[in-house]
Amino acid sequence: MNMKRAISSVILGISLALLAVSGAAPRFPVTLDEAERFPEDELIQYRQESYQLVDPVSDLALLRRSERVPLNILRTLLRGAESSAAQTVEPSYGFEEYEEGCPDCALPSAPPRGIQGRENPLRREGFERMLTEVIAEERLGGLEPSYGTPHEWSPEFRRKYGSAENSSPYLFASKLLVALAVGDTHKHMRTDREKQLYLWVVAQPLKSVTFPELFRQAYRFCGGDVYLALMTMENLLAHHWKFEHGRERLPVTQRLKPITSGHEWDWDRFGTWYHLVGVMLYGYVAGGVPSHLIGRIEALGANILTSSDKTQKQWFNREGGWIGADLAKLVRGRGYLRHELDPSLLEEDRYLNRTEDFRDRLPVALDPALDAYLDRHGESGDVETVRLRHSGPTLEGCTVKLMFDRGFGFDSSDNSIRKSVRLCSGEYARIPSAGSGIQAVRGFVSACRNHPGELAFEAR
C-alpha cells in the first residue's frame, strides 16, 4: 500500500513539474489520495468542472478552505472590516468561461445614499404564495416540480475524515452549510445551469428582474428541480460575493430590482439578494428552525465584524429560512395542486413590504398654526393624551397619525392613528396616546374635509 502511494506521489510530482514548465495551469487532483498530497493553497481553489453530487476532492478542498475561516475572522477583528474585505478579493473572480468581463468592476462603488429601512421587507405569507404561483403556472405548461437531491459529503470522505483520528468539527455540519458559510457553493456545488441563467439575466433591462422572474427562469433551466433552481440562483451570485469593491456594478446586480425597504436607498442589492437566496436554500434542505438559528448567528457575526448598518440584510437572514422550509413542504406535500391561480400574487407589493413611512427620519416643515403638548399622568409621568388645536380655520374630519419617540428617536412603526378629529382654535382636541416612556411625538394631520394638504407638528 505504501509503495503504491509512493509511486502515485512521484507521478503526481512529475505531472505538476511538466505542467509548470509548459506554462499550463496545473490540473486539480481527481482522487482523494491525490488531493491529500496536493499543495493546500492550490487545493482550496478547486472548482468542479461539471455537476457532481459525489465529489471527495471537493469535500477535502472545502474542508481545508473552511479551516482557514477562524484565522480570517481574527484578521478582520484586528485590521477592521474594510481592510479584511480588500484581502478577500480574488483577482479573476467571476464567470471567466463565458463572461467578457466588467471593466468598471474594480472601481469603488458609490457610497450609500438615502435612508435604509427598519421594517421587515418580506411579507412571508405573500412570498410563499408567490413561489407557489410560479410552480403552479409552470405545471400548467407541463413542468412538474421535484424536490431534488441536495449535495452531501461523499461516503469515501466521511469514512476517512469522520474517524476518531481525523475527525473535523466541520463534518458535524452539512456540506451545504459549510459551502454557504464560506461562500463557495459555486465551486463545490455546480449545477451546469449557471451559464444559462447568467445569459438570461444580462439580457434583461437594468433594475427589472424580480424574484419570481429569476426563480421561474432557474426553475425552467433546472427542469422543475427546485433544489437545483435555488442552488443555481445562489451560484449566480456566489461567483462574485468576495468582490467587495465592485459587486454593485456587476452586470447581474445592475439588472436585479431592489428588494429592500428604504427611502431613495439603492445600496447593497447584491448582498440582500445573496443572503436571501442562501438562507432560503439552507432552509429548503435543513428546515425552518436550523436555518433561522443560522440566520441569527450570521446576523450577530455581521454586527461584530463590521460597523455598517445591515438592518435589511438581517431581516433576510431571519426570515429566508422559514420561506425555504415552507417551499420544501409545498413541493413534498404537493400543496401546489390545491393552489388557485392568481397572477396578482407575482406583483411586488404582494410579497415585499416597501411602503415604510420614513417621515420619522426625514426633515419635516412644522406648521405654526398647530399647537400641541403632551398631557402626562401626574405620578408616573406617562403620556395619556396629546392635546392639539389649530389656530386657523376649524379643520373637520381629519386623520391624525402620531409617531412616538421613546428615547431612541421617532419611530414610524411605533404609532397610533385617530380618525374623524375636529381641530379648532377654541379648545384642544384630546388624542389618546397610551404607553410609557414617550418623550416626544411627531404628528401629521391629513384627509381633512376642508383642507387638501398635510400639516405636521411636534410635541415634547
Q: Notable features of this structure?
A:
alpha+beta; elongated; 2 domains; 460 residues; 4-stranded antiparallel beta sheet; 13% strand; Immunoglobulin-like; 3-stranded antiparallel beta sheet
Q: What order do the strands of the largest sheet run in, or round the barrel if closed?
A: 6-5-8-9
Strand percentage lies at 5-15%
Radius of gyration: 28 Å
Total number of distinct structural domains? 2
- Quickly count the helices: 18
Q: In this structure, how is the largest beta sheet organized?
A: 4 strands, antiparallel
Instruction: Extract low-pLDDT stretches.
Output: 4-26, 73-94, 96-108, 303-307
> End-to-end distance, in Å?
83 Å
Q: Which bin fits the share of residues in helices?
A: 40-55%
Envelope shape: elongated
Output the helix-strand order: HHHHHHEHHHHHHHHEHHHHEEEEEEE
In total, the number of strands is: 9
Mean pLDDT, to the nearest integer, reads 83
Given helix and strand content, the structural type is alpha+beta
In short:
This protein has 18 helices and nine strands. It has 460 residues and is an alpha+beta fold.
What do these coordinates show?
The protein is of the alpha+beta class and 460 residues long. The chain has 2 domains: 71-151 and 189-351, no CATH class; 370-459, Immunoglobulin-like (Sandwich), CATH 2.60.40. It is built from 18 helices and 9 strands. Strand 8 (440-446) and strand 9 form a beta hairpin. The termini are far apart.
SSE inventory with pairings:
Blueprint: H1 2-22, H2 32-37, H3 40-43, H4 56-67, H5 69-79, H6 81-87, E1 115-116, H7 124-140, H8 155-161, H9 175-182, H10 185-188, H11 194-202, H12 211-221, H13 226-238, H14 251-255, E2 262-263, H15 269-286, H16 288-305, H17 311-333, H18 348-351, E3 370-376, E4 383-390, E5 395-405, E6 410-423, E7 429-432, E8 440-446, E9 455-459
Antiparallel strand pairs: 1-2, 3-4, 4-7, 5-6, 5-8, 8-9
Helix pairs in contact: 4-9, 5-6, 7-12, 7-17, 11-12, 11-13, 12-13, 13-15, 15-16, 15-17, 16-17
